[in-house]
C-alpha cells in the first residue's frame, strides 16, 4: 500500500500554495512514497530503549547571551524583496475577494 | 437584523459558563528570541531585522538564554513543573507576518506545565489551573492598504514590518475554568490582572496591554446545568483589562441568545470591538487548520537541569498577592480599604509615595482621593494622571509643615497635574503658601471683627465657638491662604 495518497499530496500542495497539475500529483505521490517507505524502514528498528531524536548531534542548551548585535540596514533588508513601499515589504492581497 | 439580547442575570441563572484564557506576553529582553536584534518598541519599519529574522538561506537561530530563564521564572511563579527536556517546534502556515513561512514555537513539549495561580475575587481565593507556559517568537506587523478601514477585507495589498518578528513571546494557557457562574467575567479580569502583576514583579516584561506587550484571547462556552460543556468560541482583540471582562460577558449573552433560539454555537474565532463592547465572527476557515508542526531542526533541545531551575527559583521575588497582604498589615488597612487601593491600581504608587517619606494615610488620601477622581474623570490610568509618588510625598510634606492647608494643596496638585513643576515650585510661583505671620493677618482679622459686630460681641461674652464665622471671613478675604489656627488665636486675643 502506498504511504501517501493523491489526496494527501493535493492537500499538502494547497497548504504550501503550490499549483500542481493532476499529472504532477501522480508524479510527486510516487516520489514521496519512495521517501516515506525508506523512512518507514527506520521505524522497524524502533525499540523501547531508544528515544526518538530530531537532531544528529547529542547537544542540549546551546544558548546565547542577551547582547545586541548589529542589524541590517533597511536597504539591505529590503534588497531581496520583490516589492517594497515606505520601508516595508509589499505583498499581494492576502484574502481572496469574497463572492 | 437586530436581535433582542437576554439580560445577563437571566442568562447566568440558566446557563453555566466555562472560560479559558490564553495570554501572550512579550518579554523585555534586550534582544530577540533567536538573534541579536534589539527589541525596542516603535522605530522605523524594518530597521531591527537581520538574516535570522528574515529566514535568509544559511542563517541559524540560537536561543536567547535570558528569554529561557524569564520563561522558567514565569513557570515557577505560576507553580508549574519545569520540563527536564523539551524542544522548539516549527508551526507552518502561509501568511506574510513571518518571512520564513513558519513560526518557531513549542508544541507538544512546552517548557512549563501544570501549575496554578490563586486569584482574589470578592475576598475569596479562586485557584486558576495553568495548563502550560511555552516560548515562541512574535510575528511581524502587517498594514493592509487599499481597503476601507485598514482591515484585511477589501485590501488590495499589505505592507509588512518585521521589527517585531522574533521578539520572545511567552504563551500562558489556563485549564478550562468551570463553576464561576455569574462571576465568570470578573474572574477572567481578576486572573489577567493578577497574571500581569506577577509578571511585572518578575521584571521580565513591561506587560502593557495598550502597547501589545500583554495580549489576551478569551475562550467562552455555555452549558445547561448537569450537561456537558458547550462548544467554545475564542475571542481575540481584547486589549484592556476592562475589555477582558466585557468580552466574556457579551459572549455569554450572545451564546445564550443563539442557544435560546434553538441554534448551535460554531467553534470559531471572534473579534472584540472596544467601541460597542460586542464580538463579531472572524473569518471562518475553509479547511481545518493544519500547521504541520515538527521539531525545529535548527535548534537543539532544551534540558534545564535541577540546579539551574533551583537557582532561578531562588531569584523569585515576593509574589504580588503575598506582597499586598504584607503591605495591608504595614499600612493598617481593613480588607475593604485594601481592596479599594488594589482596584484603583494604587498599590505601587502608594508604596513608592511612602518610600519617599509620607505616612500611609497621607499617601492613600491623595491617590484614592483627588488623583483617583481625576483619573476617573479623564478615563486614564492612575499612574498616568500626571503626578508622581515624589510629587505626592512633597505635597504632603508641605501640608505637614503647615505651608499648605488642604485647600491650597489641592490647588497646587492641579498645577502638578498641569505640568507646572514640583509642588514647592508651584506653591512659590503662584504665591499659595499659607500666611501665618500675625502682622499680615491682623488687618484682615480687624476688618472681619468690624464687619461682624454681633459675632464679635458673642465672643467677648465667652462664646468662643462663634469664632468660626470670623475665621471664615478672614479665610475668604485671604483667598484661603491664612493659617486658620493663627487666625483663631488672633481673634480670641483681640476680643478678650
Description:
- Chain A has about 100 residues and is mainly alpha-helical.
- Chain A is about 35% helix and about 10% strand.
- In chain A, strands 2-3 form a two-stranded antiparallel ribbon.
- In chain A, strand 2 and strand 3 form a beta hairpin.
- Chain B folds into 3 domains: about 10-310, no CATH class; about 320-430, no CATH class; about 440-495, Arc Repressor Mutant, subunit A (Orthogonal Bundle), CATH 1.10.10.
- Chain B is built from 18 helices and 15 strands.
- At the A-B interface, helix 1, strand 1, helix 3 and strand 3 of A face strand 2, helix 3, strand 8, strand 9 and strand 15 of B.
- Strand 1 (about 65) of chain A pairs parallel with strand 2 of chain B, so a sheet runs across the interface.
- Chain A: InterPro entries: Asp/Glu-ADT_sf_sub_c (IPR036113), GatC (IPR003837).
- Chain A: It catalyses: L-aspartyl-tRNA(Asn) + L-glutamine + ATP + H2O = L-asparaginyl-tRNA(Asn) + L-glutamate + ADP + phosphate + 2 H(+); L-glutamyl-tRNA(Gln) + L-glutamine + ATP + H2O = L-glutaminyl-tRNA(Gln) + L-glutamate + ADP + phosphate + H(+).
- Chain A: Its EC number is 6.3.5.-.
- Chain A: Heterotrimer of A, B and C subunits.
Short summary:
The complex is a heterodimer of chains A (99) and B (496). Chain A has 99 residues and is mainly alpha-helical.
Question: Which key phrases capture this entry?
Answer:
heterodimer; A: 99 residues; Histone, subunit A; two-stranded antiparallel sheet; 3 helices; 37% helix; 9% strand; flat; B: 496 residues; Arc Repressor Mutant, subunit A; 9-stranded mixed β-sheet; 3-stranded antiparallel β-sheet; 18% strand; EC 6.3.5.- (chain B); Aspartyl/glutamyl-tRNA(Asn/Gln) amidotransferase subunit B (chain B); ligase (chain B); GatB (chain B); protein biosynthesis (chain B)
Termini separation of chain B (Å)?
A: 81 Å
Strand/helix succession of chain A: HHEHEE
- Output the structural class of chain A: mainly alpha
Main β-sheet, spatial strand arrangement of chain A: 2-3
Question: Which stretches of chain B of 5+ consecutive residues score pLDDT under 50?
Answer: none
Q: Please state roughly what percent of the residues of chain B sit in beta strands, choosing from under 5%, 5-15%, 15-25%, 25-35%, 35-45% or over 45%.
A: 15-25%
Family (chain B): Belongs to the GatB/GatE family. GatB subfamily.
InterPro entries (chain B): Asn/Gln-tRNA_amidoTrfase_suB/E, Asn/Gln-tRNA_Trfase_suB/E_cat, Asn/Gln_amidotransferase, Asn/Gln_tRNA_amidoTrase-B-like, GatB, GatB_Yqey_C_2, Gln-tRNA_amidoTrfase_suB_CS, Gln_synth/guanido_kin_cat_dom
Organism (chain B): Phytohabitans aurantiacus
Protein name (chain B): Aspartyl/glutamyl-tRNA(Asn/Gln) amidotransferase subunit B
Amino acid at each position: 500500500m502506498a504511504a501517501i495518497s493523491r489526496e494527501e499530496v493535493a492537500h499538502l500542495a494547497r497548504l504550501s500554495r503550490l499549483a500542481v497539475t493532476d499529472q504532477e500529483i501522480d508524479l510527486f505521490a510516487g516520489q514521496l512514497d519512495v521517501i516515506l517507505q525508506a523512512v518507514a524502514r527506520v521505524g522497524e528498528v524502533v525499540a523501547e530503549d531508544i528515544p526518538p531524536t530530531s537532531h544528529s548531534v547529542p547537544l542540549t542548551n546551546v544558548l546565547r547571551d542577551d547582547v545586541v548585535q548589529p542589524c541590517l540596514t533597511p536597504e539591505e533588508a529590503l534588497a531581496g524583496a520583490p516589492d517594497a513601499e515606505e520601508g516595508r515589504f509589499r505583498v499581494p492581497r492576502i484574502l481572496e475577494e469574497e463572492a | 437584523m437586530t436581535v433582542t439580547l437576554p439580560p445577563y442575570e437571566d442568562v447566568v441563572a440558566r446557563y453555566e459558563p466555562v472560560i479559558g484564557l490564553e495570554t501572550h506576553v512579550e518579554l523585555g529582553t534586550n534582544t530577540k528570541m533567536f538573534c541579536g536584534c534589539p527589541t525596542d518598541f516603535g522605530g522605523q519599519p524594518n530597521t531591527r531585522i537581520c538574516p535570522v529574522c528574515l529566514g535568509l538561506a544559511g542563517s541559524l537561530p540560537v536561543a536567547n538564554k535570558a528569554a529561557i530563564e524569564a520563561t522558567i521564572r514565569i513557570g515557577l511563579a505560576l507553580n508549574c513543573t519545569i520540563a527536564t527536556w523539551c524542544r522548539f517546534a516549527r508551526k507552518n502556515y502561509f501568511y506574510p507576518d513571518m518571512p520564513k513561512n513558519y513560526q518557531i514555537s513549542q508544541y507538544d513539549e512546552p517548557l512549563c506545565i501544570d501549575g496554578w495561580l490563586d486569584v482574589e475575587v470578592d475576598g475569596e481565593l479562586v485557584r486558576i489551573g495553568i495548563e502550560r507556559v511555552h516560548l515562541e517568537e512574535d510575528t511581524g506587523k502587517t498594514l493592509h492598504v487599499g481597503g476601507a478601514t485598514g482591515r484585511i477585507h477589501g485590501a488590495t495589498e499589505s505592507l509588512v514590518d518585521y521589527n517585531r518578528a522574533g521578539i520572545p513571546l511567552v504563551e500562558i494557557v489556563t485549564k478550562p475554568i468551570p463553576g464561576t457562574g455569574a462571576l465568570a467575567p470578573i474572574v477572567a479580569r481578576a486572573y489577567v490582572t493578577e497574571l500581569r502583576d506577577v509578571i511585572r514583579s518578575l521584571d521580565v516584561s513591561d506587560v502593557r496591554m495598550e502597547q501589545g506587550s500583554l495580549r489576551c484571547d478569551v475562550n467562552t462556552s455555555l452549558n445547561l446545568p448537569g450537561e456537558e460543556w458547550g462548544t467554545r468560541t475564542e475571542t481575540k482583540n481584547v486589549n484592556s483589562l476592562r475589555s477582558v471582562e466585557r468580552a466574556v460577558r457579551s459572549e455569554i449573552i450572545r451564546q445564550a441568545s443563539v442557544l435560546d433560539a434553538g441554534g448551535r454555537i460554531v467553534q470559531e474565532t471572534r473579534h472584540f470591538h472596544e467601541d460597542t463592547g460586542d464580538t463579531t465572527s472572524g473569518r471562518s476557515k475553509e479547511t481545518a487548520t493544519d500547521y504541520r508542526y515538527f521539531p525545529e531542526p535548527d535548534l537543539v533541545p532544551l534540558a534545564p537541569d535541577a540546579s539551574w531551575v533551583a537557582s532561578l527559583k531562588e531569584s523569585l521575588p515576593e509574589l504580588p498577592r503575598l506582597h499586598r497582604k504584607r503591605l495591608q498589615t504595614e499600612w493598617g488597612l481593613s480588607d475593604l480599604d485594601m481592596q479599594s487601593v488594589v482596584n484603583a491600581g494604587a498599590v505601587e504608587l502608594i508604596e513608592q509615595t511612602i518610600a519617599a517619606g509620607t505616612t500611609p494615610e497621607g499617601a492613600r488620601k491623595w491617590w484614592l482621593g483627588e488623583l483617583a477622581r481625576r483619573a476617573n474623570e479623564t478615563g486614564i490610568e492612575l499612574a498616568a494622571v500626571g503626578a508622581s509618588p515624589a510629587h505626592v510625598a512633597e505635597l504632603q510634606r508641605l501640608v505637614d509643615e503647615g505651608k499648605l492647608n488642604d485647600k491650597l494643596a489641592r490647588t497646587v496638585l492641579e498645577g502638578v497635574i498641569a505640568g507646572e513643576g514640583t509642588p514647592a515650585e508651584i506653591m512659590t510661583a503662584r504665591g499659595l503658601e499659607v500666611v501665618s505671620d500675625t502682622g499680615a493677618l491682623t488687618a484682615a482679622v480687624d476688618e472681619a471683627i468690624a464687619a461682624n459686630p454681633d459675632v464679635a460681641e458673642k465672643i467677648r461674652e465667652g462664646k468662643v465657638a462663634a469664632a468660626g464665622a470670623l475665621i471664615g471671613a478672614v479665610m475668604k478675604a485671604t483667598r484661603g491662604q491664612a493659617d486658620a489656627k493663627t487666625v483663631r488665636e488672633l481673634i480670641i486675643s483681640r476680643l478678650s
